[in-house]
Design brief:
- It is a single chain.
- The chain is built from 2 helices and 7 strands, in the order E-E-H-E-E-E-E-E-H.
- It is α+β, with helices and mostly antiparallel strands.
- The longest helix has 13 residues.
Length: about 120
Amino acid sequence: MLAARRTFPAQAAGRWEFPGGKVEPGESPGVALVREITEELGCLIELTGWLTAEVMIGTTHSLTVATARIVTGDPEPTEHDAVRWLGVEQLDEVDWLDADRPFLAELVELLAPAPTDRRNS
């Protein structure tokens, strides 16, 4: 998982989030995410799916998280001060923003290795 460390606003500075941004009028969420990642991280992504959770941010915005793969480029932060790739076992190493925490369990389930079937061993 790619996490990005916020620099602003003051109450979020130093905490980690899933990169992305707001959907502009006339954009679909997928188009907005590709645009935001290109602007914020300088790489092109291809969406592979959406997580099921949705978190309300205030009364007018909702936060959703997509899964994606990088098509070209390496993530280089322009609006964050750091990015970090995290494995399932590293999720507790960063201080997640509260709005991003509800997505962690689903991501763990999605990324955890499948159990080995020992009946045929």
